[in-house]
Specification:
Structural class: alpha+beta
Strand content: 15-25%
Helix content: 25-40%
CATH topology of the largest domain: Extracellular Endonuclease, Chain A
Order of helices and strands: HHEEEEHEHHEEEEEEHH
Shape: globular
CATH architecture of the largest domain: 3-Layer(aba) Sandwich
Distance between the termini: 60 Å
CATH superfamily of the largest domain: Extracellular Endonuclease, subunit A
């Protein structure tokens, strides 16, 4: 009896392994999956000044003395509550033209508003400290920074935990004739944007926010716009290497029903 039990278990184990292998192989060879998994998510740069850091990438506008966009992946396991000592802001050594001096903000009436939120990078001290480069900040009034902008950052982390992984692109709308602060004329954006891409299959979706630079108690969904709208304001192509069909569908939509607002 022992002999037959052993020999009968072999075919079952073999069949299970082969079934798993076939299913896994089909999944990996699915053109849509390989196309998405190999996709380069970086937007275009209007300044040709892309800077790559360990934990995020940015496009720097010397004219405005800040990034036109900061882009990064945010994963569920990166959302932690570790407490690190807050470092001093430092100029970004990778910006060839030199990023803005933090002293421009002194007595300006504006806070040093993070683009990539420091709270998104609490999974390591190195990642956290990297958010305190001046290439990652923009002048923000306190009530905006600590108010609606902070609510949007918290909602981004909520969605990351819900959907496991997001790709985030954020910045100010940088135009001509903006007010400036400091001896280097750091521009003060009138609007800030944040674009989120959930690229986990089967449902690939995106949402974009365009938020006026002022205090607001409005619900976040009131600021939802199409990605096309932000592209028209910035001249940036946010997902240039997405397959055209997916890109067009995502960028023309301002539908937020696929995202959980609570």
């Amino acid at each position: 009896m022992t002999f037959f039990k052993k020999t009968n278990s072999i075919p079952f184990t073999l069949i299970s392994f082969l079934l798993f292998f076939v299913l896994f192989s089909c999944d990996e060879n699915d053109p849509s999956k390989s196309e998405i998994s190999s996709f380069n998510y970086l937007p275009t740069s209007t300044t040709n000044s892309i800077v790559k850091h360990q934990y995020y990438t940015l496009s720097y506008s010397e004219k405005h003395e800040q990034a036109e966009w900061v882009a990064y992946q945010l994963k569920d396991e990166q959302i932690v509550s570790t407490t690190f000592k807050r470092p001093y802001f430092e100029q970004d050594p990778k910006v060839k033209t030199g990023s803005a001096d933090w002293r421009n903000f002194k007595n300006s009436g504006y806070t040093k508003g993070h683009l990539l939120a420091a709270a998104d990078r609490k999974f390591s001290k190195e990642a956290y400290d990297e958010t305190f480069l001046t290439s990652n900040i923009s002048p923000q009034v306190y009530d905006f920074n600590a108010g609606v902008w902070n609510r949007l950052e918290e909602k981004t982390r909520y969605w990351t935990q819900k959907y496991e992984e997001l790709y985030v692109i954020t910045g100010g709308i940088l135009t001509d004739n903006l007010n400036t602060i400091g001896y280097e004329d750091v521009a003060v954006p009138k609007y800030f944007y944040k674009i989120l891409l959930d690229y986990t299959q089967p449902e690939i979706k995106a949402i974009a926010f365009l938020v006026p630079h002022k205090e607001s108690n409005k619900a976040l969904y009131k600021f939802v716009v199409s990605i096309d709208k932000i592209e028209s304001l910035t001249g940036i192509d946010f997902f240039p290497t997405l397959p055209d069909g997916i890109e067009n569908d995502l960028e023309k939509s301002s539908d937020y029903k696929g995202w959980s607002f609570r």
